[in-house]
């Protein structure tokens, strides 16, 4: 046998486990004036309280620590599931869009105003060779005549 506690806004409704007889309620903080099976606390301030109900010599006691708020909205499990599912689907949709739009640009050349096309690079003349390292050409061996081969 257990108490049944229902919370809606700032109203707390407690149902006593006893089903028959004259029920007497006792509570810390408030003075219950109900002899019904249910005890309703209007404008509960979320402070802890001890609530008990008794019939003749039998008594049930409960420690009530219920957090309530005036501006809260109650959502059922289906609404919460729908909100979470919609959030996940929207997130995956955005990820797929970003992936497909960024995939096309990954290997392409940049077309910004400051960059030059690649064709101009091929039209540039070759650099001037260093005269100290000129290759030996036929008919020009006298330039290197002063170099004698060494026998090892």
From TrEMBL:
Keywords assigned by UniProt, alphabetized: Cell membrane, Immunity, Immunoglobulin domain, Membrane, Receptor, Signal, Transmembrane, Transmembrane helix
Membrane topology: Single-pass type I membrane protein
One example GO MF annotation: transmembrane signaling receptor activity
Annotated Pfam families: Ig_5 (PF16681)
Official protein name in the record: T-cell surface glycoprotein CD3 epsilon chain
One biological process term in Gene Ontology: positive thymic T cell selection
Regions crossing the membrane: 77-101
Stretch list, region Disordered: 106-140
GO cellular component: alpha-beta T cell receptor complex; external side of plasma membrane
Chief place of localization: membrane
Top-level taxon of the source organism: Eukaryota
Naturally occurring in which organism (per UniProt): Chionis minor (Black-faced sheathbill)
Classification via Gene3D superfamilies: Immunoglobulins
Subcellular location as annotated: Cell membrane
The keyword Repressor belongs to this UniProt entry's keyword annotation: no
């Amino acid at each position: 046998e257990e108490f049944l506690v229902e919370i809606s806004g700032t109203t707390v409704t407690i149902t006593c486990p006893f089903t028959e007889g004259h029920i007497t309620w006792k509570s810390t903080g408030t003075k219950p004036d109900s002899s019904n099976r249910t005890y309703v606390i209007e404008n509960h301030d979320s402070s802890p309280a001890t609530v008990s109900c008794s019939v003749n010599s039998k008594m049930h006691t409960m420690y009530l620590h219920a957090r309530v708020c005036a501006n809260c909205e109650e959502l059922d499990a289906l609404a919460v599931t729908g909100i979470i599912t919609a959030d996940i689907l929207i997130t995956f949709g955005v990820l797929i869009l970003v992936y497909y739009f960024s995939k096309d640009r990954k290997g392409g050349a940049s077309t910004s105003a400051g960059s030059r096309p690649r064709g101009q690079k091929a039209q540039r003349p070759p650099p001037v060779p260093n005269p100290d390292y000129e290759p030996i050409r036929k008919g020009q061996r006298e330039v290197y005549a002063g170099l004698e081969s060494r026998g090892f």
